Amino acid sequence: MFYLCSFNVHAEPVFISDFSTQSLNDWQQKSFKNHTQYQIVKLDKKTVLEAKSISSASSLYKEMHIDLQKTPYLNWSWRIDQKLSISDEQSKQGDDFTARVYLIIKGKWGFWQNKAITYVWANHSPVNEAWANPFTGDSVMMIAIRSNTDQTKHWYTEKRDVLADLKKHFGKDIRFIDGLAIMTDTDNSGGNALSYYADIYFSKE
What domain of life is recorded for the organism (predicted)? Predict the structure, then answer.
């Protein structure tokens, strides 16, 4: 089940993905160039989301309303099966990632005021380095969670204090998240990527 808008006094975890249902009906796909192939598969004895990109860039997006004062931590697991050969991922030509997770904050007056924070499996940037997205500027901040020193074909489980990350990179308290997106993309470099995502949820601690 998905619990996108309901919270109790004990701030139970808010589950974003439940790929064991074998359905992506509550996710929307947004294409920037061609279509990354997303499908639910069995891997390592669990049901996960597989993403294959061949010179493509499209995301899976889910609208939600997350109160970060109640559940500030984003948790997820991911794995990549191959690395990208990109020299400068902080440029427009190199803005491709085998795996990334977006958190979107909608602006009050329109899409041009939207902000986002993007957790990426970096190609070269060191872990915890942050930079402004080369296409959108500092309205979208990129944060390296994994890098080229991490293993391929190995699951990593992450936990990020989103409330703290937003405060650090946007300079103000942002209470609510309005959407989450997953993207595996290789449109700028023209390469191939294969990655997997699982167990996405928000928690109190």
Answer: Bacteria
